[in-house]
Amino acid sequence: MAAKKSFVLRMDETTYAALEKWAADEFRSVNGQLEWMMDKMLREAGRSPKDRKAALLKEEQPTPIAGK
Predict the structure, then answer these.
(1) Is 0.85 surpassed by the pTM of this model?
(2) Measured distance CA(13)–CA(18) in Å, rounded
(3) What residues contact residue 36 under an 8 Å CB cut-off, 6+ apart?
(4) For residues 68 and 64, what is the distance between their CA atoms, to the nearest angstrom?
(5) How far apart, in whole angstroms, are the C-alpha atoms of residue 30 and residue 58?
(6) Which residues in 46-60 are b (16+ Cβ under 10 Å) and which e?
């Protein structure tokens, strides 16, 4: 697993309360919920490093020859 980067995030109390409730509804921590949200948005925008790595690996695979 890749190393995780720590950083400070500031948000207003009502936003945090809504996020905390959503996380609890999904059986996640607030941190886990934020990671899930960011990962989802990166994938939807085509900017996920995971998707780019998979695409690069797929491009490196040789194309199968028909009939063999």
Answers:
(1) no
(2) 9
(3) 26, 28
(4) 8
(5) 34
(6) eebeeeeeeeeeeee
Distances (CA, A) of 66 to 51, 57, 58: 28, 21, 18
The tens digit of pLDDT for each residue in 45-67 reads 999 887 766 665 666 666 667 66
Radius of gyration, alpha carbons of the chain: 18
Non-local (6+) Cβ contacts of 43 within 8 A are 50, 51
C-alpha span between 63 and 20 (Å, rounded)? 47
Are the CB atoms for 29 and 35 separated by under 8 Å? Answer: no
